[in-house]
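Form 12-C: Joint structure prediction
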Amino acid sequence: MSRASAVQRTEVRDAAPLFAALGDETRLQLVMRLAAGGPGSITHLSARSKVSRQAITKHLVVLSDAGLVRSSWRGRERVWDLAPERLSEANEYLNRISRMWDQAIDRLRAFVETEDDK
Amino acid sequence: MTTTTKTSADRIEKTTVLRAPQARVWRALTDHSQFATWFGLQLDEPFTVGRTVTGQKTMRGQMFTIDFAVEKIDPEEYFAYRWHPYAIDPKVDYSSEPMTLVEFRLKSVPDGTELTVTESGFDRIPQHRRDEAYRMNDGGWVSQVEKLSRYVSS
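Section 2 - Result
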């Protein structure tokens, strides 16, 4: 197997959850709305939408799990925004290394939490 | 248990709590054979301050080496080494390039052990190495989503 195709295979595997998150009309609209209009609260994001606020929140959580959006608190209001590092090539290098560390920490966790070295 | 990440231009920092005693985590990090097991490489020599330990790793059918230049070992609390980040091209000799500093910090907490992993010094890594990492990803999701993002914001 050539290296290029192996790399692409990894890319496809990494990309699958992202496209799954985007593969929904409401979620894609949310991403587009955030891209076009900047950060917004649930009230703002569910305005002009036929979908309930609760459903919008669920969709935002799915997008957040895929690393596409993130939220912060402005006073008592939760404000959602695109996570630019997931969308920007400038940080792709660090993102890749960051994901490698996530994987390494997962393996370390499995190792110390399940195996006794005595 | 979740891992929190702080990323800036120069560093990546990950903090998590492992449900294991500090001494157990310390051995997993600094005993070279235990490190090799969870990290997924072959390491025949103990970590010793001031020495560079070379490990072998097979990835995607290719064998390559990873050098760990051990900086500091403070028993059960702090372990640090330097290495070449993302040095995954077996055809490239990274030895003359700047290294990043990897630091593991351990702290005992009620649930087990808090681990903080920091990798810093990315600002010294040549731009072409960063570009290379991006090129490997070209045609993947990043460029697709960027196209989408440009489309909606134009």
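Section 3 - Comments
Residues 88-118 of chain A form one domain. Strands of chain A lie at 40-41, 69-74, 77-82.
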